[in-house]
Amino acid sequence: MAITWRAGRIERIEHVTASEASARIARGAIDRRDVHAVPGFVDAHLHLTLASMGLSKVDLSACASRVGFESRIAAGAASLPDGAWLEAQGWDEASWGGALPDSSWLDAAGDRPAVAYRMDIHACVVNDVVLRQLAREGALDSDPPGGTIVRDASGAPTGLLLEQAAWMLVNPRVPVPDAARRHAALLLGVSQLLGYGVTAVGSMEYAREVREVLLPVARLPVAMPTVVVTLLDRTLPLDLSVAQEFRVEGRLKVIGAKSFADGTLGSRTAAMLEPYIGTDSRGSLIEHAHDGTLVAWMRAVTAAGLSPSIHAIGDAAVRATLDAADAAGVPRGRLRIEHVQTISDQDLPRMAGAFASMQPLHAASDMPGAAERLGAHRTRLLFRCGDIARAGATLAFGSDWPVVPPDPMRAIRSAFTGRADDGRVYGHSLITVEEALVAHTEGAARCLELWPECGSLAPGARADIALLDSDPLRCDWDAKPPRVCGVVLGGEMPLGGRA
Ligand SMILES: [Zn+2]
């Protein structure tokens, strides 16, 4: 195959013989026997500035014990100046048998403030220094709406904070690094994306990050994937002014706003139609979905010319989202439902025409725990990629980075093998390699309103190309899965190499 481009756009794709090909490379072309070109991958849902800043935080994702957790905290603290906040992320209690951490797990941070986020960012644990500061300010007197301050038998906070308690009480107190550090972090994050062959992303961002980080960096002459922003600012009355200030700036654009309808299966806060196993709790709707303002929020978002994107993981949250979209008159082609980790049989047909923004690697890591929490009779309701696609929804794959790495090859493999991280195959509702590839290119590009500019190798599309070392449709994924060996962005190779 030979691909020719000019001024960053694909001109021609041809199947040519080797002797014909060499003459065509002059203007910019790919003609290599040893690489296989696919459209640059599109990640429909991640958190670019958050993940980029996270690259400098203490990484707890590999910890399999309390000892491992504490030794990483100690090592992280040793590398920080006195008094600086220690920020860590990535822990998962499932890795060490399920005990939830409390403030004492952070004692190795010493007398500096310390916070460690769970891998799903929906919970964090803080040390005594932060607890004392929060207590002084009266912030621990009662749970904030939509959040939980976990307490021990005596009623004292353990240091563990869930959902809004993590976001509202802790996040605003962590000092924000200066602009130069945030810009440098973003460039590091961007180079990681490019290394995975990702050339366009849908990023969940606060307006402040758009103004202070993404926009200034998008104006620099640096290689940057296309970044499509969905705004996380969601207090009513909605302030979508950043979307009025600009819609497109180079490779940066704003297309939507996000609301959260529920929490996560991991913390049993996803809103389910039936209770979790062993409790009478069904999780609960939160934010607009809880307050009865989801319809008004959707109307406000669509009136501003933006698309509503709703975090809905439990089957009850998905139903509430579909109900609200119907009531608000949001056409299915404008509706992006994030995660859709469970959906009832009755609601499946209602997904037709909507975007199901799903993360196959969540399935790989969450399946074992989720199956336990929901019971054997409901595992067939989990991660129904195949059923959702057959119902007529568009699958748009992503990673939710920093929750999992933005690695499309691993995601695709998980989607068609249905294999969880524990090695077991949860083989219901799978899709083919080709469908998974489409969901991580064309499907995600459609979801982000980038089609056919991105997610395609057709003439006229951006010359954004991922180069693989083998053909994903023909190779043996078990013996030797395809590897990204290069990336072309707008006709350039930002990580070096030759086309
Ligand atoms: Zn997310």
Description:
The chain is of the alpha/beta class and 499 residues long. It folds into two domains: 88 residues, Diaminopimelate Epimerase, Chain A, domain 1 (Roll); 291 residues, TIM Barrel. Helices cover 30% and strands 21% of the residues. The protein contains 15 helices and 21 strands. The strands form four sheets. Strands 5, 12, 13, 14, 15, 16, 17, 18 and 19 form a nine-stranded mixed beta sheet that branches. A six-stranded mixed beta sheet has the order 6-7-8-9-11-10. A three-stranded antiparallel beta sheet has the order 2-1-3, with no helix packed on it. Helix 2 crosses helix 6, helix 12 crosses helix 14 and helix 14 crosses helix 15. It is globular and about 70 Å long. About 2% of the residues have low confidence.
Q: What is the terminal-to-terminal distance?
A: 12 Å
Poorly predicted ranges = 18-29
User: Please, what is the average pLDDT?
Assistant: 91
Approximate shape = globular
Bound molecules: zinc ion
Radius of gyration: 23 Å
Number of helical stretches of at least 4 residues: 15
Strand percentage:
15-25%
Major sheet: size, sense and barrel closure? 9 strands, mixed
CATH architecture of the largest domain: Alpha-Beta Barrel
CATH homologous superfamily (4th level) name of the largest domain: Metal-dependent hydrolases
Number of domains: 2
Task: Tell me the total number of β-strands.
Answer: 21
CATH domain topology of the largest domain: TIM Barrel
Kindly name the structural category. alpha/beta
What is the helix fraction of residues, given as a range? 25-40%
- The first-level CATH class of the largest domain is given as Alpha Beta
